[in-house]
Amino acid sequence: MKNKNKVEKIRENLRYSGVFLCLLTAACASTSSDKTSVENPDINPNLEPVNHVIYSFNDALDTVLLRPIAKAYDTVVPDFVQSLVKNFLHNLQTPVYIINYTLQGEGEKAQAAFGRFALNTSLGFFGIADMAADAGIPKETTDFGATMAKWGYTDSAYFVIPVMGPSTVRDALGKGVDVILNPFNIATMNPNNDSLRTADWIRFGVNAVQSRASALPLTDDIARALDPYTTMQSMYLQNRRHELHLDKDTNSYDFDFDMDEE
Predict the structure, then answer these.
(1) How far is the C-alpha of 252 from the C-alpha of 262, rounded, in Å?
(2) How far apart are the first and last CA of the chain?
(3) Which residues of the chain have pLDDT under 70?
(4) Are 36 and 43 in contact (CB under 8 A)?
């Protein structure tokens, strides 16, 4: 029993390490006051040496572990099954969308997200089937980084999060808050429910693999670029500003390499 408690404690620390990692790294990045260069408001010269080191670490980890697993998953698992997995994971994250849309003052989008969650959870086998799409309810996503942008925190320097990848100082903080906002994460804190905690670990792993598999075409293209770091940085920042409607004339690159959708 004592050993079991120790194991559970270690698992719990690992489970929420992503939250503290986001908050800690973003806080460290903020020590430079999130100041950006005059030439490019999305780049903080003081953060670039750190970003390059973290990028190199992430790239090595991806090469030896994450990409091979994602490649195997993408090869073995049929597309329609991957689609069902995406639907299920999206549904689990929908409460976070509802909260953020509410905080952003987007009442209609919050209601639509609530409608999607209620319909897909009840009639869509907990979200596996996207019944809301058939009902004409659009699938939209948001996060606390977008909420902060809505509140006025629009300019934020590029920041690479260890393991998780490209982000900004604002969005790194937002990722940590989103994990805390997710009611499913709160539910797994119950020390008396081992089944729920195990299921949540499985969800975390499947989400990481599915997200990485979805990003394979894009990241493979980036890897062939003359300067992969700069290419990824540019694509992420342009796509993010497009998502937040900060640069309405900017093309969207559909950057989909987000492995922390908790």
Answers:
(1) 24
(2) 30
(3) 1-39, 41, 248-262
(4) yes
Residue 26 falls inside a structural domain: yes
Whole-number Å distance between alpha carbons of 93 and 142: 10
Residue 257 lies in a domain: no
Q: CA dist 38 to 35, 54, 73, 136, Å?
A: 9, 24, 43, 44
Question: In terms of residue numbers, what domain contains 166?
Answer: 2-243
DSSP-assigned beta bridge partners for residue 114: none
Residue 124 in contact with residue 132, Cβ under 8 Å?
A: yes
Task: Give tens-digit pLDDT for 210-253.
Answer: 999 999 999 999 999 999 999 999 999 999 999 998 875 545 45
Residue 146 placed within a domain: yes
pTM above 0.85, yes or no: no
CA-based torsion, 158, 236, 66, 4: positive or negative = positive
Condensed to tens digits (0 to 9), the pLDDT of residues 162-171 reads 999 999 999 9
Residue 41, SS3 per DSSP:
coil
User: Which among 211, 148, 203, 150 is positioned nearest to 175, based on CA atoms?
Assistant: 148
Phi/psi at 161 (nearest 5 deg)?
-90, 135
251 within domain boundaries? no
